[in-house]
Amino acid sequence: MLKVMLVDDEPYILQGLQVLIDWESGGFEIARLCSNGKEALKYLKENDVDLVISDIRMPEMSGLELLETVKKEKISDAEFVLLTGYDDFAYTQKAIRNGCLDYILKPVEEEELISVLRKVTNINKESIILRKDREKMEDAYLARIIRHLIRGKFNDEDIDYANKHLQLLGNMRFIYIELVHSEIEDDDNDVDEYDMSAAQKQLYNACKEVLKEYANHFTLDISFDEDNYNVGFLFCDNMAALRDISEKEFLESFVKKIETIIIKPIRMFCGEAVPDISSLSKSFDSCRRLKSISGFHNKKKIYFYEDTQTGHASIVLCKNTIDEIIGSIIKNDTQMIEQGIDKLHEELRGKEGTNRAFDLNINYLLFQLIHLASELDDTVNQEEIIQYISEQTSEGVFVRGSHQHLKKFALEYAAYLSELRKSISHGILASVEAEVRENYADNISLKSLGDKYHINSSYLGQVFSKKYGTSFKNYLTNYRIKEAARQIITTDKKINRIAEDVGYKDSDYFIRKFIEIMGCTPSKYRKTNRES
Fold this sequence. Notes:
Blueprint: E1 2-7, H1 11-20, E2 28-34, H2 37-46, E3 51-55, H3 63-73, E4 79-84, H4 89-97, E5 102-105, H5 110-151, H6 156-165, E6 172-179, H7 183-186, H8 193-210, E7 218-219, E8 231-236, H9 238-241, H10 247-262, E9 266-270, H11 280-292, E10 302-304, H12 319-331, H13 334-348, H14 354-376, H15 382-392, H16 403-421, H17 426-439, H18 446-453, H19 457-468, H20 472-490, H21 495-501, H22 507-518, H23 522-531
Parallel strand pairs: 1-2, 1-3, 3-4, 4-5, 9-10
Antiparallel strand pairs: 6-8, 6-9, 7-8
Helix pairs in contact: 2-3, 5-6, 5-22, 8-10, 11-15, 12-13, 12-14, 12-16, 13-16, 14-15, 18-19, 20-22
């Protein structure tokens, strides 16, 4: 309901306006009756209304003076309609110049009042649409700034914008929040991208609901992985300090509240704590490394990067054996790989603090493997390597402490590196291009294309990124949005229909992507390009 304030020094006029029409059926409610401009001004300073209907001539403060004061001092965004007589036309002209929406001649006629209220209703609808469009554009822009910061490729304007729009007090860390899927779900090749997107959006909305005051500290689309549906969170230790609890207590409470809302288990990966926003990329990198080795640790709700870096002084690092394993992986020597894993297992068996020793040695192995691929080929995208390792060592696939699973992973990684050294024919990439052109509206992915053309999907992603300078997911998204843009200016189809035609079931998700790529909403893009 839109709130209305009636202002007139004549009581019978106020009473008459109240009963002249059925305000409620038109979507209005009378919030306040005032007998002069001063009384109305005081109310507006403390309360929100959508419409002020005021007599133009009143003692103490006229309707015109009220209008001028409100607009000049920016006290309220309410629309103004003035009640005027035939001899007040000069005042009426001045009122319109000062932002008055309309005027109504006395005595007030029912139809004329209803006509003005319709105009107010339409303006309010347009205002809501514009506000939502603006909010979506601001969210998309802030997400872009955060991506710049976590990549370490930012400028002073990015820092200023982040400091202005985020509550960055104290040390901070980048945190991944993700849904915990069962092993069966992880192995399901038929999981729909938009089902995953819907689950991600549910998680995102729940996070913002729990921490309303820090809602813009959560972001989507911050990952560089093809099939990653995490939510990013910029945590500042001041969030916990204000509640007089520890960081761990704050995050544990946060996890419980999220799980209560979405009725699904989640987990967090907390990157290294850094002193300011300019160091966020360091926290993000450590967060991704932490996620990639989580399968080698005990299952828990919250993983902290620092837990993998401390307490190893008295634990033996089997560096020589691990270096031998890495050498065997480079050569793709299956026999030597198996012997090396068995040797490592024997060296760790019975050691004091076996579990911690295992963690330390596996962490060392994984960190070396992350860099190994880039040493073999400096064009390799480390982000893809981290994702590959993360997938292969997730707890659904890898059981902590099992050297048989470690052996299986090492053999598969050796084969993966072997593929990285091979050249891929131009024909497959050409086929992938054709798949996008012909099936862009379908649920196509690197995994489905890898299965179709009998090639490792991670490797396919590597060579695709190398040729096109972007990931397959981004390439597909850009193709869809450019096709949507073409349809927007060449057809009269509704925006949600165009979204479906180019492969988006969720129109909000489509609009967010459109803003990121085209810089404005679809409706504004249509209006601007058709006018030009």
